[in-house]
């Protein structure tokens, strides 16, 4: 059976509590975010799709815990980011979106 995103987030948050990560130093957790993000880059550069999937998942896990350490939910952070970008203007160049203020 496949879990929903909400179920998975709750499971990660509980895992974090079980491991006492929810009260740990957020700076250390940020380092884990960067470590896992680096694995995403390595997987892309080597075209290893299984490693890419794992790296994306691991990065999301670290972000869930980092948000939790600040008393936020992943949904709250995602909503905050979406509210910032939803009306953003700009253009896509070489597969990268560049916001209008950076085009000048």
Q: What distinguishing features does this structure have?
A:
two-stranded antiparallel sheet, 104 residues, mainly alpha, 4 helices
- Overall structural class, as computed from helix and strand content, comes to mainly alpha
What's the domain count?
1
How many alpha or pi helices? Answer: 4
What is the residue-mean pLDDT, rounded to a whole number?
97
Give me the count of strands.
Answer: 2
Order of helices and strands: HHHHEE
Indicate the CATH topology: Helix Hairpins
Beta-strand content bin? 5-15%
Query: How far is the first residue's CA from the last residue's CA?
Result: 50 Å
Low-confidence stretches are none
| Bulk shape | globular
Domain NTP pyrophosphohydrolase MazG-like: 32-88
Protein name: MazG-like family protein
Organism: Staphylococcus nepalensis
Topology (SSEs and partners):
Blueprint (H helix, E strand, L loop, with lengths): L4 H14 L7 H21 L2 H21 L4 H12 L4 E4 L2 E4 L5
Antiparallel strand pairs: 1-2
Helix pairs in contact: 1-3, 2-3
InterPro entries: MazG-like_dom
Protein name: MazG-like family protein
Organism: Staphylococcus nepalensis
């Amino acid at each position: 059976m496949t879990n929903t995103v909400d179920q998975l987030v709750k499971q990660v948050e509980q895992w974090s509590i079980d491991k006492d990560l929810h009260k740990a130093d957020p700076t250390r957790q940020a380092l884990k975010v960067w470590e896992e993000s680096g694995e995403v880059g390595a997987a892309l550069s080597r075209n290893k799709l299984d490693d890419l999937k794992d790296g994306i998942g691991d990065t999301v896990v670290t972000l869930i815990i980092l948000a939790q350490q600040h008393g936020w939910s992943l949904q709250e952070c995602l909503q905050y980011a979406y509210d910032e970008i939803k009306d953003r203007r700009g253009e896509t160049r070489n597969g990268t979106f560049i916001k209008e203020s950076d085009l000048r």
